[in-house]
Amino acid sequence: MTLDAKTERRLLQLLDERDIRDVLTRYCRGVDRCDAELITSCYHPDAMDDHGTWLAWGRDAGATIVEKVRPGKDVAMHFMGNVHIEVEGDTAFAESYLMAYRTFQREGQDYTRVRALRFVDRFTRREGEWRIAERVVSDDWHRVDRVAETMAEAGQFRLGSKDREDPVYAIRRGPLARSPKRPD
């Protein structure tokens, strides 16, 4: 089967968009798991990241972000929603809507910060690989709420961790799930 030129272009664009989405989701995993190496792999070394409250070069983004997230102290989760990608040759522009959650303590009290934000990115493909060349974070709204109660103390849940012991990494080393009781 031979593809016509229009179909081939559309398929190549879909592959480009898929590769860019992979960078976006790897970035979120890297931040949420405090994996500096994974975060850094999403940027070209000379990329610029303007997060609003801090700036970093791509080569330093992983270390900068992990320092800000405070491994072992805070918990973060990024949920990505709408993503619009426009590919123009070896350059692409993406707008990604996110909800970002983060826990922290202030004067011994637990708080949760919720941010509705957008990543406005310019990606470039170099040597066949898409990475972030420029990122600007745009906050649409945010809020901080005092935590009245959590369920984590009950021990009912397997908690994620901000390291290579998190289930997303641990499952690759072997069985992770607990065995259900056998019926009698």
Describe this structure in words.
With 184 residues, this protein is an alpha+beta fold. Helix content is 27%, strand content 41%. The chain contains 4 helices and 6 strands. It has a 6-stranded mixed beta sheet with strand order 2-1-6-5-4-3.
Provide key terms for this protein.
184 residues, 6 strands, single chain, Nuclear Transport Factor 2, Chain: A, globular, 41% strand
- Category from helices, strands and their pairing: alpha+beta
- How many strands? 6
Measured by DSSP, the beta-strand proportion falls in 35-45%
Average pLDDT reading: 90
CATH top level is Alpha Beta
Q: What would a concise description of this structure say?
A:
With 184 residues, the chain is an alpha+beta fold. The protein contains four helices and six strands; from the N terminus they run ααββαββββα.
Please outline the helices and strands:
Elements: H1 5-32, H2 36-40, E1 43-50, E2 55-57, H3 58-69, E3 76-88, E4 91-106, E5 109-126, E6 129-146, H4 167-170
Parallel strand pairs: 1-6
Antiparallel strand pairs: 1-2, 3-4, 4-5, 5-6
